[in-house]
UniProtKB/TrEMBL annotation:
Ranges where the TRAM domain occurs: 381-442
Organism for this UniProt entry: Qipengyuania nanhaisediminis
Lineage: superkingdom: Bacteria
Predominant place of localization: cytoplasm
UniProt cross-references to Pfam families, sorted A to Z: Radical_SAM (PF04055), TRAM (PF01938), UPF0004 (PF00919)
Name by which UniProt lists this protein: tRNA-2-methylthio-N(6)-dimethylallyladenosine synthase
PANTHER family assigned: CDK5 REGULATORY SUBUNIT-ASSOCIATED PROTEIN 1, MITOCHONDRIAL TRNA METHYLTHIOTRANSFERASE CDK5RAP1
CDD domains in the record: Radical_SAM
Name of the encoding gene: miaB
Length: 448
């Protein structure tokens, strides 16, 4: 490969989960430290980072078509420098390097702190792949956070040891690691100094976080949340994603005790049939999941619930799928994510008997989503008349309109005197399936 000019502008395109969004922001910060600027809207960037997701279908094909789009009809000097990051890079990095000469860098989710060195090589025309998994070292090597959104993410835990039989995460993100308590408290304070009012603690299995607090005591996620709640200027705390097996008494109690911990819980269940759950290696039953939710609701009666579902796991019968619908009817989720099962190479479920046909999966997904949409609208309608705080995150489509989130993670729009980062008191007046309209009562807390 010929040497390339040093890139002056970049664009990071993140796909998939919120952790990828977080990683994308951190990569952007690192490129900024190298003096590379974000490419202006609508203009080509000199360097494009494709921060990929491998959780479901066609992940790799999507990367190749993105690469094709970026390089189509362009000479080597005009085409952008391309880095492939994220979970597809981790799983299929070598193959990508072999198949796509246009790619200069392949960097896994645990190695992106080394992007500047890789970039130096790429500028000299040397292609570089780094899919090591040093985990904690990455966070220590990242630059300080100087700028952020009112609602920010903070990765506290990475990786997963659960090995659900359909899931690639334990292979692409590696074993569970918890970032040290002191680092997290420091980073949370930095985020608040940089303008964050809300922090969502992120982890593939965030409730498995553990660490030693400032007094040397071993604490779990609830202990961390309790201390973060003491950070001045931080108004809201959320966390995602959890596994039912790691929700301890302390975390349940925290929902009743800590005002800053928002009344929202994303707790994936995946399916309603115990046979399917066992085949998925989920280590919980439908009943144990429902009992767990009862305990959370007892601690925080206005808790809004969210979940993840997979339809058409290998061997799932019609009757077993009906059990998923029955569970949905019982829980009444405020929102949820639902997916057709997608065989992931290298996972045990990919080679299981009884792969379900596309038509059956389509039909099951449609029925499940009808039920989930019905419950989401019902939850939003039941919120009309509530007065709550909304964190203003951005401008709405029309002049004078603002968009923010309610404590229950609903999108709320309103008009009036506000600015991004304000926490305002809103009366919810009208409900739609995906958002609510509100009226501004007063500015409860204003941005610094
Ligand atoms: N097929 C379909 N959905 C999947 N998920 C994870 N792996 C797969 C797969 N192979 C879903 C699960 C998980 C969410 C992040 O993605 O519901 O909770
Ligand atoms: Fe994947 Fe979540 Fe299961 Fe871990 S707990 S293997 S991340 S689905």
């Amino acid at each position: 490969m010929k040497p390339t000019n040093s890139p002056k502008t970049y664009r990071v395109k993140s796909f998939g989960c919120q952790m990828n969004v977080y990683d994308g922001e951190r990569m952007a910060e690192m490129l900024g430290e190298q003096g590379i600027m974000p490419a202006p809207e609508g203009e080509d960037a000199d360097l494009v980072v494709l921060n990929t997701c491998h959780i479901r279908e066609k992940a790799a094909e999507k990367v190749y078509s993105d690469i094709g789009r970026l390089t189509k009809g362009k000479t080597q000097t005009k085409a952008p420098m391309i880095a492939v990051a994220g979970c597809v890079a981790q799983a299929e990095g070598e193959e990508i390097m072999r198949r796509s000469p246009a790619v200069s860098m392949v960097v896994g989710p645990q190695a992106y702190h080394r992007l500047p060195e890789m970039l130096e090589k790429a500028v000299k025309g040397e292609r570089a792949t780094d899919t090591d998994m040093p985990a904690i070292a990455k966070f220590a090597a990242l630059p300080e956070r100087r700028r952020t959104n009112p609602a920010s993410f903070l990765t506290v835990q990475e990786g997963c040891d659960k090995f659900c039989t359909y899931c690639v995460v334990p292979y692409t993100r590696g074993a569970e690691i918890s970032r040290p308590y002191a680092d997290l408290v420091t980073e949370a304070k930095k985020l608040v100094d940089a303008g964050a009012k809300e922090i969502t603690l992120l982890g593939q299995n965030v409730s498995a976080w553990s660490g030693e607090d400032g007094k040397g005591h071993q604490v779990g996620l609830a202990g961390l949340i309790r201390d973060l709640a003491k950070v001045d200027g931080l108004a809201r705390i959320r966390y995602t994603t959890s596994h039912p097996a790691d929700m301890d008494d302390d975390l349940i109690a925290a929902h009743g005790e800590i005002d800053k911990l928002m009344p929202f819980l994303h707790l994936p269940v995946q399916a309603g049939s115990d046979r399917v759950l066992k085949a998925m290696n989920r280590s919980h039953t439908a009943e144990s999941y429902l009992k767990l939710l009862d305990r959370f609701r007892a601690a925080r009666p206005d808790l809004a619930l969210s979940g993840d579902f997979i339809v058409g796991f290998p061997g799932e019968t019609d009757a077993e799928f009906e059990e998923t619908l029955a569970l949905v009817d019982e829980v009444k989720y405020a929102q949820a994510f639902s997916f057709k099962y997608s065989p992931r190479p290298g996972t045990p479920a990919a080679t299981m008997d009884g792969q379900v046909s596309k038509d059956v999966m389509d039909e099951r997904l449609r029925r499940l989503q009808d039920a989930l949409n019905r419950d989401q609208l019902a939850f939003n309608e039941a919120s009309v008349g509530r007065i709550c705080e909304v964190l203003v995150e951005r401008k709405g489509k029309h002049l004078g309109q603002w968009l923010g989130k309610s404590p229950w993670l609903q999108s709320v729009w309103f008009e009036g005197d506000a600015q991004i980062g304000d926490l305002v008191e809103i009366e919810l007046v009208e409900a739609g399936p995906n958002s609510l309209a509100g009226t501004l009562r007063e500015t409860a807390l204003s941005a610094a």
